[in-house]
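Researcher: I need the complex structure. Ligand is phenylalanine. Inputs:
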Amino acid sequence: MTEKRTSIHGQWSSRMVFILAATGSAVGLGNIWKFPYMAGENGGGAFVLVYLVCILLIGVPIMMAEILLGRRGRQSPINTMSALAQEAGASPRWAWLGWIGVVAGFLIMSFYSVIAGWALAYVLKAMSGDFVGFTGDSSAAAFVGHIGNPGITTFWHTLFSVMTGYVVARGVKSGLEKAVRILMPALFVLLVLLLGYAINTGYFDRGVAFLFDPDFGKLSREGVLSALGHAFFTLSLGMGAIMVYGSYMPGKASIATTTFTIAFMDTLVALVAGMAIFPIVFANGLEPGAGPGLVFISLPIAFGQMPGGLLFGTLFFVLLTFAAWTSAISIIEPAVAFLVENRGLSRRRATAVVVGLAWALGLLTVMSFGGWGFTFEFAGAQKTDGIFDILDIVTTNFMLPLGGLAIALFAGWVMSSKDTAEELGSGETGLYHVWRVLVRFVAPAGVLLFFLHSLGTF
Ligand code: PHE
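Model: Output:
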């Protein structure tokens, strides 16, 4: 048995707090903003089915692997990977896995905080009654007007960056733990309320059919790859966020149970968001394939019409901002932890460096919607939002699945089964063997097959 390491950054106070923090990381814009529009762009049901299969057979085992690596290494992903590689007598090049994660974190944070900035701005719009009387057309026009103004979106992007930096600089324990405890359940309640509204639009059946009736004819090669990528994105996998959170996890907690809880809640939020949004989309003659604006265009119509819409609309965008906030801190935590460990920076200074760089990069996303957008084709699909789309495709469709693949290979093939069994605390149980088959064979083969498919190989 190896000696137990401890993290210099601290530890979650309980298993429950780890679940909350990891759920806070997983549940974010990916569930409420991205999932519905991706499902919409890819024709609904078939995309959702592929996405669910990816979550279960690829995402869940890889999440267990990623937590396991983090908890055993107890350092930033870069140092965790070199320590564990050394321990297993493997090449020190495994540290690259951590490096790629840090780069992916920068790229993701850069666009994430711009979109979270949209949500922040929409809090103010909801509060001032802007949504009252919105139709499909006027809501779309308002949205296009908002994102097309780089001065304004930069302001909100800056504010969100500062908010994220503030929490990370203080250390995760004092601020976030408390907030997540109240906010995540509140967000869920609000989504269910919206679901209630959607049921009464008269288009609920159509929305649900769109989301759950698979029509594989509508699923492009790009759609398949996006479903895989989104499974990683939505579970925060493949770039070290979950690994670094795992490094703060108490030693005794069960990794399997926590992973199931996180994946279940994450999936539930995405599906409820979809079921709330598509009936509103169809009832108002909107396009399900409208792209990144889908949520920002459809939900304000509902808030503008329902009694109490001012309050609920404000609350919704506040909670969406919080969901994004608890995710954003996990996106930059791997880089911050690394700078603290290896460059001897204080946590505050490390955070300032990381947030500053990601902020600057974020201006490219601001401009993608603010006049620099261009169109290109990717795996047979038309993309219209220029650099934002490129950042999104490179990270979500390539870096995260490849990072996840490497994590699966490391946990399944490089580490000894004695070590992984010890860390999972499940010894010779059936569950352990199922995990090991998934992480050694099913998940890696799945990722490779999806890649080959999207390259048009079959
Ligand atoms: N899971 C987050 C979401 O769905 C995004 C995220 C990606 C967070 C990668 C951390 C790492 O919004």
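Model: Summary of the prediction. Strands lie at 376-378, 381-383.
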